Records
---
Amino acid sequence: SKELGKNKYQFCDYFMKNSVYEEMKLTNYLYQALDRDELILCYQPQVNTITGEIIGVEALIRWYHPQIGFISPKHFIPIAEKTGLIVAVGEWVLRTACRQKKEWLDKGILDVPIAVNLSVNQFVNNSIVIQIENILNETGINPSHLDIEVTERIFMKDSEYVIRTLEQLKCLGVTISIDDFGTEYSSLNYLKTLPLDKIKIAMEFVRGIGNNEKDEAIIKAMIILGKSLGLEVIAEGVETKEQLEFLEDNLCDGIQGYYFYRPMLGDDLEKIMSVNDSE
Ligand code: C2E
Ligand code: CA
Ligand code: CA
């Protein structure tokens, strides 16, 4: 067992060295990715639970590296956050999503807000409000067309500062959603103080529908809590009819998930829309 322990240690050591190296490599590649047009946005519609009508579209980043292939945002966003690159990547995401929204406005399709994910570290940057204001002006879309998704992680930061920033964003006229609701540093206190519009029930809870009574109880409570506070409640990661029916029975407002739509390129989403129109 001594031998085993030693091997285990060596394995960890190797793995760590390797992952640091991997991370450095990815960081360098990510610097280039912006210039080389390797980043892409996909869009995933959110639908009304009862009617199935599209009520919003979330922008999700994709990175295609010519040698490595597709790299998941779950992998590179944390690296971008650590290295500060998230500021540039985040600005690119905001601008690209708003441009896409403008294109849809001009074409008279997908007349719903576009949701963009914002990292904590984009809040550190004092100019986030000005940046968003500028991008809205530059792309010519209305602030109400933009929905900002933040996770509870932002409440780890200086809360005075976060509250002020969210209030300023709200004053601009954008809406604010809490992503992955209930999975991180939750303190229900912020629901009282922040100018929120929406909560998104995390996929982790939705997974439990039909097989975990506790997940079901938590979801029910979240929906009641959200609605009592006048917030819109969206459930994420809905893949089955059973999950949809549970959420419908419990009066969840909206659904996002593979059951209805997967994230797809803007062009592909447009094609689906025009097929639906001609039906
Ligand atoms: P998220 O914001 O919670 O996004 C939802 C994730 O769930 C997306 O993964 C989406 O593709 C996936 N998803 C949606 N419906 C289903 C479903 O029915 N089943 C399953 N299994 N998955 C579903 P994705 O695109 O890989 O993004 C992962 C995370 O990366 C996002 O989680 C978000 O935290 C982050 N991310 C993505 N794009 C951006 C971005 O532009 N900026 C920032 N800061 N973070 C981003
Ligand atoms: Ca999100
Ligand atoms: Ca989420």
Note: The beta strands are 39-48, 54-65, 69-71, 114-117, 146-151, 175-181, 198-201, 232-235, 254-255, 264-265.
---
Amino acid sequence: YDVYGAPVMADSGRLRGVTLVMHDITEQKKLEQVRKDFVANVSHELKTPVTSIKGFAETLLDGAIDDPVLSKQFTEIIWKESDRLQMLIVDLLELSKIENAQFKLDLEDMSLKDITEDVFELVRGKAEEKGMHLHIQEQGSSVIEGDWQRLKQVVLNLVSNAISYTPSGGHVTVALKEQKDAVVLKVQDTGIGIDPKETLRIFERFYRVDRARSRNSGGTGLGLAIVKHLAEAHHAKIEVQSEEGKGTEFSLTFPKKQPSTL
Ligand code: ADP
């Protein structure tokens, strides 16, 4: 508690009592802590690739540049780390845009199946490299009112994760099912799964179940935080079901019409 006290004096000048004002600051403190943790995490995530880029550039300048094998190897690392830095900055900007009070969806009627097909085009290269199989299932119409670009981001993040966290040769399925007033989109994989204890935390910014493995998967740690924000902006419900070693299913239930436009 924040406590302020002030004496209350009688006309005679004698002390009559004390007024105490107490504010419950636990909630405020928690938010402040979340903000501090976020800044610390961002700094750490930015520092790691920058340190590596700087180190390898220095080594090149110190002479490694004359060795064709080393110079190729180091330049590749510099490229990879810059790429990582760029993804991180793009995701951070995206998150800050979404969290802005002025953030608005650009709504239109569109099909989640079309979005999934677009996303599969984007990830096809990565999927083929790993020998992964991509499938779409549709029951009824998958047309909802939503923001095309944002929903594409949602499906892309979920499908990219499904590919990243599934061993070579596995399957990723996007299943779409019409309900009375909603459409359910499921992204299923046959991957490593998530410990049930972790399923709530994975939506936190920079939270990863296995830091080392996730970093190697090329993600920024912000993907699911972005998914959660954008799904909530569309009044969608998110559920996760997972079994370790078997696979994971993210399920998003979208209303067909956004409440604001009913
Ligand atoms: P990242 O960039 O690390 O993938 P995300 O926010 O997209 O960050 O995901 C957070 C964490 O949730 C991941 O690091 C991973 O541990 C876990 N995760 C997400 N999707 C899956 C999945 N389909 N299968 C297993 N684990 C997953």
Note: The pocket of adenosine-5'-diphosphate is lined by residues 157, 161-162, 165, 189, 191-194, 202, 208-210, 214, 217, 219-225, 248 (CB under 6 Å).
